[in-house]
Amino acid sequence: MEPHRNERTGLYRPTVPTRIPRSVPDDQFNEMFARLPSHRDRALVAFYVSTGARASELLSATQGGVDPGRRLITVVRKGSRQLQELPASPDAFVWLRLYQVEMQELIPAGAVNRCGGHCAGRPAR
Fold it and tell me: Domain 36-105: which CATH class?
């Protein structure tokens, strides 16, 4: 048997690393949110914070999966690949609508998208 060594921790008991806090103070979050460059980014962050969904799940959401009246957004869950409705904050829907209005101004009236005009709610002309 080896003689006892005067160590702070045992050989098989490593120190537990200190964890980084999982929350951001409100003032720092508000400052970061104000610095976001577009309404799209603000909408994504607002949905991310209010729903708790993964970023990849939020990016799978479609325009048809948004129900502001019921305050729900439908996403495809990562593990099960099932559609799931998640409650979201009213502010997130406000930012989403501001982004949609902004995009309507940038798309010409007669433009046809990749789906032949059927996806975005604008019929092809």
Answer: mainly alpha
